[in-house]
Amino acid sequence: MVRTYGIQPTLEHYGCLVDLLGRAGLIEEAYEIIKNMPMEPNSVILRSFLGACRNHGVAITLDDKLRKLLISEPNLGANYVLAASVSSLSGCWNDAADIRVAMKQKGLVKVPRCSWVEVGGGGSTAATINEPLVVGDPTRKSSFVGAYENFPECQEQIETSQLNLFLDAAVNFS
């Protein structure tokens, strides 16, 4: 990226690279990027990395850099849930229990994830529904039947796109 385009990587570039590597299951490579960044990783990068560890079942030890996630955003319940999940995966049951206790003591909860979905949009005569699709909300299934039916095909397209993006980023990063 520097040699080819003369662009110095910013925090956002490193974040994208960590996210792409993590989604591809290249956890060690993503962690090396985090350790060797010329700046401190932000909470988004750390959350992305920990989420990839959880999603790929990779056990890691929460070092000081990764513990900063809880310190940097002490009122975000999702960070505690993520850290506890990764600690459990790593067999650090006491750490996971301590994190969950701290979360309860602070009265924090994890907000359900959601995506905004537009159904029926595009045409001038079509009615448009623009509302959140919350993970695990069975009441919305009837509104988004097409999304559920086409999910395997969409997932395959997304994974192919992510792999292509990852390969492009890896080739052009340095």
UniProtKB/TrEMBL annotation:
GO biological process, one term: RNA modification
A GO MF term: RNA binding
Matches recorded under InterPro entries: E_motif, PPR_At4g14850-like_plant, TPR-like_helical_dom_sf
Highest rank taxon of the organism: Eukaryota
Protein name per UniProt: Pentatricopeptide repeat-containing protein
Source organism: Prunus yedoensis var. nudiflora
